[in-house]
Design a protein that fits this description.
Belongs to the initiator RepB protein family. The protein is of the alpha+beta class. The chain has three domains: 142 residues, Arc Repressor Mutant, subunit A; 80 residues, Arc Repressor Mutant, subunit A, CATH 1.10.10; 89 residues, no CATH class. The chain is built from 14 helices and eleven strands. The protein has a four-stranded antiparallel sheet with strand order 2-3-7-6. The chain has a three-stranded antiparallel sheet with strand order 9-11-10. It starts with 12 loop residues before the first strand and ends with a helix. The relative contact order is 0.11.
Length: 345
């Protein structure tokens, strides 16, 4: 019998940073992933300036952490057990997120949540998220993935959810070594390993890849095809060294209302007499710089010129945003800074 899904006020397209999507994590339960999805939803609401007008959801920023309050049913199936909620929140508290930036040499770690609380008679839960992790969730400078919240919440395994978040909206194939694939999904080191230390590719396929592929094929607008890359391509018995995942779009699984909203948003945000902005540019302006449609359209000629003259415009915008934050400046400073970059180009 199919479980009732966690409560969903409305389906929506979620944006998650590539920094988090590509992060390596130990294997998570579906319940843990659902809690994280709700944290991501809260981040997105903040980015878009949305305020939930009820007494059930709260976001309070502190000096070190962000405190979130929400109904337990937001993240757990309606027939949840008290022990299940406790186990999930404790596991997320004990689980570490590691940030390791080889470019800057920066490394840090924190728990996914802190100070979890639950009021089971009222059906509410509360916990804190480290400010640094909150910033990772909202850091779109390295790119992002967009996916449907309802589809993500309905996926039955954490592996299928991770695949969906990775592949959704992706256009180019993604290639991984077997070792990196295992680390990305958090597959335990002693699982699917032969006595000689090599990987059991057939088991990885049968228990991880193919079930996830089937689940995405049946319910999600994005799924994937995959190919095994061998050490010697001409020898079908040679060692598999890499996996190549190619995204595929499944129109029939797309929420028609969200698809219509997406089309309207593209027209409203980037269409006009000056032509079209690239989607990654317009999305960065909206989601990372928090610019309104009016602000984007008012400066569209500048952005289109910058898009044409400056390679990797999003990186330039990210640089200006960081410098503006250090100087305590706003959008006007970033606009003038972009004009300066164009003059110096």
């Amino acid at each position: 019998m199919k479980k009732n899904l966690p409560a969903l006020q409305e389906n929506k397209d979620m944006v998650v940073s590539w920094v988090y999507t590509w992060s390596r994590q130990k294997e998570m339960s579906v319940n843990e992933q659902h809690v994280i999805l709700r944290i991501l939803e809260a981040c997105q609401n903040q980015v878009r300036g949305l305020k939930i007008k009820d007494n059930m959801h709260k976001i309070e920023h502190g000096l070190w952490n962000v405190e979130l309050t929400m109904p337990i049913s937001d993240a757990f199936f309606s027939n949840y057990k008290v022990s299940e909620v406790k186990k999930t929140l404790l596991s997320l508290r004990e689980r570490s997120f590691e940030y390791d930036n080889s470019e800057t040499g920066e490394w840090w770690a924190c728990g996914f949540i802190e100070k979890p609380e639950a009021g089971f008679k009222k059906g509410m839960m509360k916990f804190e998220v480290d400010n640094r992790l909150w910033d990772v969730f909202m850091n779109f400078t390295k790119g992002y993935r967009e996916f449907e919240l309802s589809k993500a919440l309905s996926l039955p395994t954490s592996y299928s959810l991770r695949f969906y978040m990775l592949i959704s909206g992706q256009k180019a194939p993604i290639q991984m070594t077997i070792e990196n694939f295992r680390k990305w999904l958090g597959v335990p080191e002693d699982k699917y390993i032969k006595k000689d230390g090599t990987h059991r590719i057939d088991n990885i396929e049968a228990r991880i890849i193919k079930p996830a592929q089937k689940e995405l094929d049946e319910t999600c607008p994005y799924s994937f095809e995959y190919k095994k890359i061998r050490e010697n391509p001409k020898n079908p018995r040679s060692k598999v060294t890499h996996l190549l995942f190619s995204p595929k779009y499944i129109q029939k699984n797309r929420d028609p209302e969200l698809e219509q909203k997406e089309l309207q948003a593209k027209i409203g945000n980037i269409a006009g007499s000056f032509g079209l902005l690239d989607k990654d540019v317009s999305d960065y302006l909206m989601f990372n710089l928090n610019m309104t449609k009016e602000e984007i359209n008012a400066n569209k000629a500048l952005f289109l010129n910058a898009q044409k003259e400056l390679p990797n415009l999003v990186e330039h915008l990210a640089d200006l945003k960081e410098r503006a934050a250090r100087a305590g400046k706003g959008i006007g400073w970033i606009i003038n800074g972009l004009k300066g970059k164009l003059k110096g180009n």
